[in-house]
């Protein structure tokens, strides 16, 4: 439960029926105020979503993967893109300015860790689909930059000061100016690149939030060495 440390994540136990059944029968997806109507649960699933054995999963949509379809994935694979599945159960985003993300459950399987290592060893780039993927992969990376199979709960907050050890690029949606995720974006691509991307998003009226547009962020060669 929440305590005097300011934590807003509460733990609860359901009496009677299992939690998964209670949520399935009575729960509803988060309703975003900018959507015109309630969305079906299927609208919140991505092509990569898999059912969990214990019925648990994300509390919010891992929205960066929403534009992907089976056809897009097949096309990427046919062009030689490797896909390394990782899991992070997305928590509910805080409405408080600059509040760090909650601890979240993650899993990086051995096969994916090896695939990421092989890509890096071969001179390839590791592109994360979503901030959730960044958090999972970076949580499994050691100080040497090697990704190893890992899982559990992570409270890692990726910032420019901490930097990224593995991820070379990030495909993500557009976040609020006060969101802590912006620090992660700057850690990947540098502040100047992120500022340019958001300036264009405002100018061209891109769509924000979970059902909005996504963009690919890649680091500048100097990675803001002169800032």
Describe this structure in words.
This protein is α+β, with helices and mostly antiparallel strands and 227 residues long. It has a single domain (19-217), classed as 3-Layer(aba) Sandwich (QueA-like), CATH 3.40.1780.10. Helix content is 26%, strand content 11%. The chain has helices at residues 19-26, 70-78, 110-121, 131-139, 181-189, 191-203; strands at residues 87-88, 104-108, 127-129, 150-154, 169-173, 214-217. A three-stranded antiparallel sheet has the order 1-2-4. The chain has a three-stranded mixed sheet with strand order 3-5-6. The radius of gyration is 18 Å and the shape is globular. Mean pLDDT is 84; it is low at 222-227.
Main attributes?
disordered C terminus; 6 helices; 3-stranded antiparallel beta sheet; QueA-like; 227 residues; alpha+beta
CATH superfamily, please?
Answer: QueA-like
Helix content: 25-40%
Please report the number of helical segments.
6
CATH architectural type: 3-Layer(aba) Sandwich
What is the top-level CATH class? Alpha Beta
Q: Gyration radius, to the nearest Å?
A: 18 Å
Largest sheet: 3 strands, antiparallel
- The fraction of residues assigned to DSSP E strands is 5-15%
Compute the separation of the termini in Å: 42 Å
Mean pLDDT: 84
Enumerate the strands of the largest sheet in spatial order, edge to edge or round the barrel: 1-2-4
Tally of discrete structural domains: 1
List segments where confidence is low: pLDDT < 50 over at least 5 consecutive residues.
222-227
Structural class: alpha+beta
Query: Outline, from the CA principal axes?
Result: globular
Encode the helix/strand succession as letters.
HHEEHEHEEHHE
CATH topology title = QueA-like
Q: How many distinct beta strands?
A: 6
């Amino acid at each position: 439960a929440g305590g005097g440390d300011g934590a807003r994540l509460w733990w609860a136990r359901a009496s009677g029926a299992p939690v998964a059944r209670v949520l399935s029968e009575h729960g509803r997806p988060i309703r975003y105020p900018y959507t015109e109507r309630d969305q079906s649960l299927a609208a919140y699933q991505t092509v990569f979503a898999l059912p969990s054995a214990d019925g648990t999963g994300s509390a919010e949509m891992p929205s960066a993967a929403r534009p992907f379809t089976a056809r897009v994935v097949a096309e990427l694979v046919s062009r030689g893109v490797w896909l390394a599945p990782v899991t992070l159960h997305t928590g509910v985003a805080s409405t408080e300015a600059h509040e760090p993300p909650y601890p979240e459950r993650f899993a990086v399987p051995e096969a994916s860790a090896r695939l990421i290592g092989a890509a890096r060893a071969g001179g390839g780039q590791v592109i994360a689909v979503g901030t959730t993927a960044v958090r999972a992969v970076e949580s499994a990376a050691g100080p040497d930059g090697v990704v190893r199979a890992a899982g559990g709960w992570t409270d890692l907050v990726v910032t420019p000061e901490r930097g990224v050890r593995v991820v070379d690029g990030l495909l993500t949606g557009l976040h609020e100016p006060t969101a802590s995720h912006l620090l992660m974006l700057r850690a990947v691509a540098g502040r100047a690149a992120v500022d340019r991307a958001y300036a264009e998003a405002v100018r061209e009226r891109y769509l924000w939030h979970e059902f909005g547009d996504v963009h690919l962020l890649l680091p500048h060669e100097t990675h803001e060495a002169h800032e």
